[in-house]
Amino acid sequence: MNARVSSPMAPRPRHPAVPAATYRAAVSHLPTGLAVVTARGPDGPVGCTVTAVLSLSLDPPSLLVSLASRSRTLAGLLAARCFAVNVLSWQDRALAHQFATTPADARFAGVDVRQINGAPVLDRCTAGVVCEVRESVELFDHTLVAGVATWTGTGTSDPAVLYRRAHHALVPRPAHGPADGGARVSGPAVAEGPPGQG
Question: Are strands 119-122 and 61-68 parallel, antiparallel or unpaired?
């Protein structure tokens, strides 16, 4: 199904919703990756920083992204019927701030992109996935977009992690830790609020 689907009216909750600030403080304890979703807009590339990216399925290979329903990026993505998810590296974590706070028409300043399968892919990313849009569902003030992967690419840089509103790097786990191998999250770097997904 390719059309946007509106969510049905939900029954009134038994308990009032928690304040937005309280909710934001709680979910900031959930570590997430940092990514930039990009698409080809009518007047050039569009993109925004996102933290809500989910690997959806292997059959077919697909993922899910959440974007603000009024965002320019979402409008471009739905019009183009394809998009790219660009996973940011620790070294390029500043791009998260650039694509979250810079005016939409200036977000790609100084950023090199390649067109792959109809979507702009950032040269400065540690992994990229290009998807064709298969379905979109509007929930509350965001829209979930499901896409089937048509291209992937990976680099060697470590990804940036958002935890408690700050950027962190992955570092090797000490040998005397609870398990050998793996990685842990380092101390904070650039203080950052949750990115606006538009």
Answer: unpaired
The 3 state secondary structure assigned to 149-172 is EEEEEECCCCEEEEECCEEEEEEE
This prediction has a pTM of: 0.81
Q: Which two tokens stand for residue 198?
A: 């538009």
Sort strands 142-154 and 61-68 into parallel, antiparallel or unpaired: antiparallel
HEC readout, the chain: CCCEEECCCCCCCCCCCCCHHHHHHHHCCCCEECEEEEEEECCEEEEEEECCEEEEEECCEEEEEEEECCCHHHHHHHHHCEEEEEECECCCCHHHHHHHHCCHHHCCCCCCEEEECCEEEECCCCEEEEEEEEEEEEECCEEEEEEEEEEEEECCCCEEEEECCEEEEEEECCCCCCCCCCEEECCCCCECCCCCCC
Report the C-alpha gap between 112 and 115 in whole angstroms. Answer: 10
The residues near 132 (Cβ < 8 Å, ≥ 6 apart) are 81, 82, 117, 147, 148, 150
Q: pLDDT tens-digit profile of 68-126?
A: 999 999 999 999 999 999 999 999 999 999 999 999 999 999 999 999 999 999 999 99
